[in-house]
Batch of 4 targets.
Target 1
Amino acid sequence: MLGIRTGPGPSLFSNVRFNVEILAAEPIDLTEARDSAETDRVLDQAYPSDARLREVERRFNGRFRRHMTGAIDAAKGTADRLRAAEGARKTLEASRNAVEQVQAQGFAMNPRERAAFRAVHATLTSGMNLDASIARRLNGLFSHVVKTLSEDDFLPGDPATAKARHEALTGASGIRRTADGRTDL
């Protein structure tokens, strides 16, 4: 029984190990179309349909899923696959936390807007290789906005809320800082 050759693998144990690796590294969620349709149905019941937000959410969620599923599939061995799956889970958790922190700073979002924000945040913080020219342009745009944005841009309204919003977007509040000192919001 021990070490008996049983088929594709060199031994019974290698076949069992292979099956355990497959079961241990479940894909993030390969039912993107179904999930998207279910989410759309639920959100459209309470909030007006916004085709632009839905498209942003669909595209970024699709890219995130493909990137993370590819990372899991490319991993060698159970430990690497589990690390990749854990990385995906942590990225999604960080995106949920980012939404909560943004809302705490005075930015009100409905569930559709939160879902789109989470999708964009998760994709951009996932470690996915981005087109370098687009990344440079986005960084330049972000730098320009941070330089020209002022608290007055968030008025009329409560001055304290305007200040909190400004500090959240510019990173002055200290929340959500990356290793290079920039905000990840």
Target 2
Amino acid sequence: MRIGSLSSRSSKFKEYTDTMAAINRETEALNGQLQRVRSFQDERFYFSDVLRELSFIAPDGLWLTELKSGKEATESIHSFVMTGRARYNHAVAGLILALERSRFFKNIFLNFSRESAGAGESLQEFEITADLKR
């Protein structure tokens, strides 16, 4: 009778340990999913913050005419291509310097800067590529 009781308790104990092992596996899987969600949150940025930054750092006499981001613009989803016009070369150089100092951008590259005539005055057209800091 005592052996039967021990055997019964042993099978109950095995059920409990199997249940606990399943719960632990599920907990580990959920923790892995939670880590992935947290890493996505750490890498996100608010486009409105980037636009506000651009509006603050753009020098006088410089206008951004087009802003493309992500796969639409480059191979990387974390890149921007900025196209614009400026009255002077030093305004384009000032924008590049400001982008390098910005908390949002890295790997700034001037794709081109060329003179263009328009509306009776000479302007500099330019295109800049920059990556977002993550």
Target 3
Amino acid sequence: MEETAASCDLRGGLREVGPSLQAVWGGIKQFFLNLVEEKLGRAICIAAGLGIAIGAFLQAADRNSFTVVAVLCGTFLIAIGCLVDRIAKLAITLKGGLQVELHPPKTAEETTALAEQVEDDPALEHGVEAEPEDAVDLARYQLADAAVQRVMTPAADSPLSGCDLHLYLLDDIEGKLLPAFEPDELDSEGWEPGAGAVGFAWEFQDLIYATAPQTYDATFRLTGERQKRYRDLTAVAAIPVFNSAETTIAILAASSKAEDQRLTTEEGLNDLESRAAGIARLLIDLLQWFDDS
């Protein structure tokens, strides 16, 4: 009976400690979030944490309790500086002990919508009225946007010089491959899997390329309207953007209207493949829209 009573007391104590710990964490988190808003937070937290941890090791000849506490405090500050805007919940439970829940990364649709919101309200770009995690995701998107635009703008000496490059992502709702990182004024209805070079590359998960007249005839199941629209294309190519598991996550397409096009040469196709590999890492590592599984 005494053991049972003690167990109940322990559970009751933990139930009381849990909300208290969350309240304490809420205060700590808000304090550091305020520092972040004042452009002081992360750098100060990480620098102070490193200073305390390193100083503890250098000053203490023997690894006493003070050293351990100092190292733990330094580690905590470093973690706060790195994760303060990503922690959604901190809780303590009887079975699981200390549990930390992080905010999940935003999806492609959510990040794109946030970027569009900034275009409508430029003040948000500078963090006004924006949550810290939104600011991080927005910064990721803007950096990725600039990097993708650079990848899709070939230099003058590139075999893809003069080509138009576009990146397509599958929209699960519409069931189409829609252009990404494009200006709003771009009028594109996208491609269904199995239609056009883009749709063929998605369906067969392989490089697809062709020269006129296959660029505008019925070879790639183009509608009559699209056959007329693309009649001036001399070359097209579309290549899957793979993750490390060789799963297609996007399609990179290129087209040319030049008579002396080099898109479908070995050099041009190799150039397109290397650009697709670079875009894969932007989508996976920077934006975190996909993973390597």
Target 4
Amino acid sequence: MSELQRQDEEQQHELQETKADTKKQNAQLRALLTESGDKLKDAVIEVLTEIWKLNAKDMDPTRKTKLKEDVLIQDKDQSILAEVKGTRNKNPTFAHVTQVLTHKFLSEHKNANAALILNHDLTTDPLNRTEAYTDPDEEQQLRRCVWGAVCGGRCVGGGVRLTIAG
């Protein structure tokens, strides 16, 4: 009986290690849906570089400029300056969109596309979140704000919305 107990304990230990390893490996993916601030920005950078194999870098690793939440994403002939935001608001303020464009013009990457990577309604389960900026008035404002040049928009798991503007 003791041999069976030892094997059972060994198997339980291996499963716990596997669970811990899996949790650690997927921490950045989970952070995309649950975090804000630097944790969210770091998770975005890691996912963009490790999973999507894009060149993404923190625009303010010292946290001393206005580009604290900005990420520069580069792929071949395209550059995107992305503002990464996490908020508890179910209906996030439109100021996030205008901040993206302000930062674009303040940066040395004025020819880059602008993007908002928004993780909103953080207190709601990601499966139950609604999309941001879907009200017809907001959609119209968004089109005006980016000169009618929204290149792409999509929902990425649980209401995280990525909007890229020219």
